[in-house]
Amino acid sequence: MIEIDKISKLYDGVAAVDEVSMTVDTATITVIVGTSGSGKTTLLRMINRLVEPTSGEVRINGKSTHSVSKTDLRRRIGYAIQGHGLFPHYTVARNIAIVPTLLGWSSEKIDDRVDELLSLFALEPDQYRDRFPAELSGGQLQRVGVARALASRPDLLLMDEPFGALDPIIRAQAQIDLRRIQQTLGSTIMLVTHDMEEAMQLGDRVAVMDQGRLVQYGTPAEIIQNPATEFVANMVGGVDRSLRLLSLFPVSEFVEDGSAEGESVEANTSLRDALSICLWTGRDALPVVQDGSLLGRVTLDAIRKRAAIS
Amino acid sequence: MKKNAIKWSTIVRVLLVVLLISLVVMPTWFSWAFQPFAPEKGPIIYERASLLSLSLSHLGLVALASIVATLVAVSLAILVTRPLGTAFLPLSRTITNMGQTFPPVAVLALAVPALGFGTGPTLVALFLYGLLPIFENAITGFSTLPPATMEAARGLGLSRWQRLIRVEIPLALPVILTGVRLSVVIALGTATIGSTVAAKTLGEVIIAGLLTNNTAYVLQGGLIVGLFAVLIYDALVQLEGLLLARYSISND
Fold first, then answer.
1. Under a CB-based contact definition with an 8 Å cutoff, are residues B37 and B9 in contact?
2. What are B106-126's pLDDT values in tens digits?
3. Domain residue spans in chain B?
4. Is the pTM of this model over 0.80?
5. Shortest distance, CA A35 to any CA of chain B (angstroms)
6. Given CB atoms, is B156 within the 8 Å cutoff of chain A?
7. B49-210+223-251 adopts what CATH topology?
8. Contact state of A89 with B162 under an 8 Å Cβ cutoff
9. Are B155 and A48 inside 8 Å of each other by CB?
């Protein structure tokens, strides 16, 4: 568990981050979202003490981040940034091995870990281990960057706009991969982004920052349904709100008994996609299947009900 | 086509190396070539000292001066590119600039009373003259490191020292090497005037030629120094190329 306790950062008397407190549960993704200048990156960088807080404290599993040296702290916390920041003169394997090497792992243990991570990120170890960063594509570089951040099994992974430099298609895939890997490893992740869409898609919980303050902290659904301020309402977008809300739920949660005509959808399809299919094919209900067996159906009525903000 | 080009340049290199070695070790082989330039009945090949020992001492001087200049210039550059050292940047610039502006001949003249005749003054002159290119290149190298890489190095928990040794120096190395290369080539030429204050260099041959009106000597000395300069320059270019290729293999 990560506890951020009334943390502030002043630059020349002006608060970049103003008494922010929040608690992050283990094995969840928390997304900090805000416009540029909202203090979201400063907040993140105070957790691994790349920025020293003016006041307040961060505790990781009950221990203050000031109880250990900066370098020891950072070696326990993964850090992935926009533009990957790989060492251009290190091979992929050596890049991933940086923190384990600093921690003095045996070379066998390091090699195993590198191969394990490469496989996890769908990069064939034999093929990619000895390549240099200049030989990889943008998406591959980003994956190696995240793999490096996870190499020492850190208590916490901090990500600063990790997908910012990727094009939309690779970006979407990277988000799906991150979710999958987070669930496989049970990692605790804090991620900064300016993109609300990304926040909604990735976050178990979303923290909205505005002018150095934490203005709302809750699940994506809470934030869409009850934006705390006008700023949050603007961030989640006026007209798109209902669709954004629908994209948060899989159809499996709204399956009812009964039959429907036509092509079926998978249980993990989002309500938003199901709605789109209903409209496109002119149907009022869709059959839902999971692992090839029929679960039931999802109806346009049920979708409509979920989308309406009471 | 490309393969042939590489082959040709290798052949030229090997030929030049062979030519240089024979000029130094077996100078009498070339009597016929230098004959037309020697005065009538005068000596053709310089024999007052062995060209090999002159070459070795010439190269030794240049190497020693360049190594010391590199160590000093790079350490200075590291110092002034740290947050605490930035205040010293203008001062260091002034010092290294003075080293470059001050003519080596003047340094020799001034250093002789203090250090006596021989290698000492020459070393000082070469050292001072070589500082600036290395220093300026090292500054450029250390201040143009990729920001994302530096941020990541900090965020991953490398200490200052580890960042310097594992990231900053290796990444700045190609640019530093360019400075070293310039400095070495300048020093190879400049070292010849060291012989005016009795340093053992190939300049001895050239000066002897000038004093006795023997163009054959001047040519011999000049040719050997020139070949050393060209080949060493080329070797350092190759080394830089290798380093750069490793860091930034183009993938498009």
1. no
2. 777 777 777 777 788 888 888
3. 49-210+223-251
4. no
5. 21
6. yes
7. MetI-like fold (1.10.3720)
8. no
9. yes
| Rounded (5°) CA angle B196-B200-B204 | 55
CA distances from A8 to A21, A45, B39, B151, B162 (A): 9, 12, 87, 22, 30
**B48 at A interface, C-beta within 8 A:** no
Percentage with pLDDT > 90 across chain B: 15
- B157 and A85: CB-CB below 8 Å? no
Query: Per residue in A211-237, pLDDT tens?
Result: 889 999 999 888 888 888 888 888 887
* Edge-to-edge strand list for the sheet holding A29-34: A77-81, A156-160, A189-193, A29-34, A205-210, A213-218
CA distance A155 to chain B (A): 13
Measuring CA to CA, which residue among A225, A204, A207 is closest to residue A217? A207
- Phi, psi for A166 (deg, rounded to 5): -100, 150
Distance from CA of A217 to the nearest CA of B (A): 26
Report which of residues B116 and A25 the model is more confident about.
A25
Whether B148 and A82 lie within 8 Å, measured CB to CB: yes
Closest CA to A146 of A124, A110, A120: A120
What ipTM did this prediction achieve? 0.79
